[in-house]
Write a structure and sequence with these properties.
With 214 residues, the chain is an alpha+beta fold. The protein is built from four helices and 15 strands. The radius of gyration is 19 Å and the shape is globular.
């Protein structure tokens, strides 16, 4: 079998991701690979230094996975992303970063499809999001609608300070939780202010408790 170059391998791996996702790989100081997506291009070039304030820099400094929204101050383009540092024999070697476009610049609404058309919903009014029947449904106190994005997409796009993934099928807005109950079928059951009950699965329970402080 002929040898495979790192760049060729990364190009092939990049094809596994959505056309909306850019991929960047760095060592501890500079980028060594960059594959822009069709929707977002941070204009990174191999050899560019990793800038302070980027999720790549934050992941390298913390040596932990970082997932958050970065405003336009760093690259001139707002984006969401996830950066995962990699180590070899305990020593930090670099970081792999996936970059997602912001839904819209300065956007603070989710536009959902209803039977009659589309409704833009402010983030603050979203009670929870649900993955069901290969669709994502956005629920408010008064109505619900579907959206083309997956829950994973929403995890990167929604404000992290009050939207929490609590189950493989649910993301909740903590400002709309009325009460939290222990439950036999899941770790917890959330009573939302629109009357619905949302489970917190065991795999998310410790993370959920830590964020809510109980």
């Amino acid at each position: 079998m002929e040898s495979i170059t790192v760049v060729s391998l990364l190009d092939v791996i990049g094809e596994l991701f959505s056309d909306e996702i850019s991929i960047a790989v760095s060592n501890t100081k500079e980028y060594i690979y960059y594959r822009p997506s069709r929707r977002i291009d941070l204009k990174i070039k191999p050899g560019d230094l990793v800038k302070e304030g980027t999720i790549t820099h934050k992941a390298l400094v913390s040596k932990k996975k970082i997932s958050e929204f970065i405003n336009r101050d760093v690259f001139g383009i707002p984006y969401h992303g996830m950066a995962v540092p990699f180590l070899h024999e305990g020593r930090l070697e670099g970081c792999v970063t996936a970059v997602y476009p912001a839904l819209t610049e300065g956007k603070s609404v989710v536009t959902v499809k209803t039977q009659d058309g589309w409704i833009p919903i402010p983030f603050s009014q979203v009670v929870y999001l649900e993955a069901k029947d290969k669709k994502t449904f956005v629920h408010t106190v008064s109505y619900s609608g579907s959206h083309k994005n997956t829950l994973q997409d929403f995890e990167f796009r929604l404000p992290k300070d009050y939207f929490i993934r609590c189950h493989r099928s649910f993301i909740v807005n903590v400002n709309h939780i009325k009460e939290i109950y222990p439950d036999t079928h899941s770790t917890f059951l959330l009573s939302m202010d629109n009357g619905d009950k949302i489970p917190v699965s065991q795999s998310y329970s410790s993370y959920f408790r830590k964020l809510l402080g109980f």
